[in-house]
Write the structure tokens for this entry.
Amino acid sequence: MAISEIEADATFLNIIMDLRNDITTLMRQEAALVKSEIKGKAEGYLKTAVFMGASACLGLFAAFFLLLAVSKLLMFGLTAAGLPVWEASWISPLGLGCLLALGALLLLSKSRLQRESKPRFFRRPAFRVPGNAGMDRDEKGR
């Protein structure tokens, strides 16, 4: 082998090694970039979840106090209608609770009806496959 061939082989090997190092560096940089993007998105989702949880908690407190006020108004109305205070004080929350339970049942039945009316993705095919596949047990004997 001549010296020029050895130098050509050495430069070719240097080029391949440089290419391998560049690809390794590029892959590490891409992995770090993806990691930082995922971290940023996760932080954003976490903040959103915290705010949604806090708003749900405040909403439940608001609903509780509004229902308490409606119950008191109902109690005052029943008292003004002629019922004694001790009867109105237990009839008003009971009546309000029954109305809320009825509303919850109506919403539940509506959601079930909507869910049943949507098409299902995993239904049995409407056509029969020729041969024994897809036939019922009583049809196989014929």
In short: The radius of gyration is 36 Å. The first helix runs from residue 3 to 80.
